[in-house]
């Protein structure tokens, strides 16, 4: 059955388990955050400076610093101190289990995970415009 015009259809990605999809929706806002999280998880004993992370991710230090701060705010990374400042992996319990499972999916099908991240984004300008659009069926 084809959805009615104007009805958004969101299908779960069969390549990504539902609990991983929920974790991504709740904790990962960008491909850079995803890549950083996977790197911190894989090297959990290492403290990452924004400069080191930016080199590993082919990013810029300012963006890497913001990514590390966002992961810290979500409880997935913690400040490790030092000069320059550095962060390390900090997830525990269920979050750590989800990240480990995400790591398996990420290694098996990185493209599907990245596609899922971008597919769930909603354009706020379009959403606002749609809210005020007059429809014939009303």
Secondary-structure class: mainly alpha
Largest sheet: 2 strands, antiparallel
Mean pLDDT: 84
Beta strand %? 5-15%
Specify the helix fraction band: 55-70%
Number of continuous helical runs:
7
Element string (H = helix, E = strand): HHHHEEHHH
Total number of beta strands: 2
Distance between the termini: 22 Å
- Poorly predicted ranges: 1-11
User: So what's the overall shape?
Assistant: globular
Major β-sheet strand ordering? 1-2
Q: Radius of gyration from the CA trace?
A: 18 Å
Q: What's the multimeric state? A: single chain
Keywords:
138 residues; mainly alpha; two-stranded antiparallel sheet; 7 helices; 2 strands; disordered N terminus
Q: Would you mind describing this structure in some detail?
A:
This protein is mainly alpha-helical and 138 residues long. The protein has seven helices and two strands. The protein has helices at 18-27, 31-42, 50-57, 61-73, 93-108, 110-119, 124-132; strands at residues 77-81, 86-89. It has a two-stranded antiparallel ribbon. A hairpin with a 4-residue loop joins strand 1 (77-81) and strand 2. Helix 2 crosses helix 4, helix 3 (50-57) packs across helix 4 (61-73) and helix 5 (93-108) packs across helix 6. The chain is globular and about 45 Å long. The two termini are 22 Å apart.
